[in-house]
């Protein structure tokens, strides 16, 4: 399978399960309503795992433009391939978000708060401060990219050879969510936030409010900077 269709499928699975668990926890009259942050973080981890194992054999399953940046900087892919990854990731994220809307359509109708509806598409800060919110996204994504590069290092005789890489990355995402996700909802993935935010803007979500474009740059810029820092740490300090 080529890069673009594979990344579309993998990223759509990630967003369907990830934003799906947010919808389950936040939307009115869902059986999982109010089940909490731990449920959300594990749901996202399982979404990562599903996406990775679905298409990992074809593309390595980046599912995240920030991860693609890190792997490109490390020389794993060339720039032309990176562009294909980014295209697939954005399209997949939008498809995944649309499928969540379809799956929870009645619950969007039953939910009054437009802020809760937006939260099932994109992230938002617990305390709005662009500097600190961006810094949080930088740190979380730095940890993610450094972890991905380490787990997939040919010199690492553990996870890469045993087929556990996808599981370990999924658990890393859970860990980042539990430890660093509180301030911003941990996008750590530009496509994960921007693609669904576009879907929220253009589709007829029942009773929706603003798509909060004033904040939208934070979960894009922060993860890209974090990816660059994580890749540089790996390149400079981890012997090849």
What does this structure look like?
The chain has 240 residues and is an all-alpha fold. It has one domain: Glycerol uptake facilitator protein (Up-down Bundle). It has helices at residues 3-26, 37-59, 65-73, 79-103, 105-110, 114-119, 130-151, 159-162, 165-180, 190-202, 218-237. α4 packs across α10 (190-202) and α7 packs across α11 (218-237). The radius of gyration is 17 Å and the shape is globular.
Write the layout of secondary structure elements.
Elements: H1 3-26, H2 37-59, H3 65-73, H4 79-103, H5 105-110, H6 114-119, H7 130-151, H8 159-162, H9 165-180, H10 190-202, H11 218-237
Helix pairs in contact: 1-2, 1-4, 2-9, 3-4, 3-7, 3-11, 4-10, 7-9, 7-11, 10-11
Mean pLDDT: 95
Radius of gyration: 17 Å
- The CATH class is Mainly Alpha
CATH homologous superfamily caption:
Glycerol uptake facilitator protein
Helix segment tally: 11
Number of domains: 1
Compute the number of strand runs.
0
Shape: globular
CATH architecture verdict: Up-down Bundle
Beta-strand residue fraction: under 5%
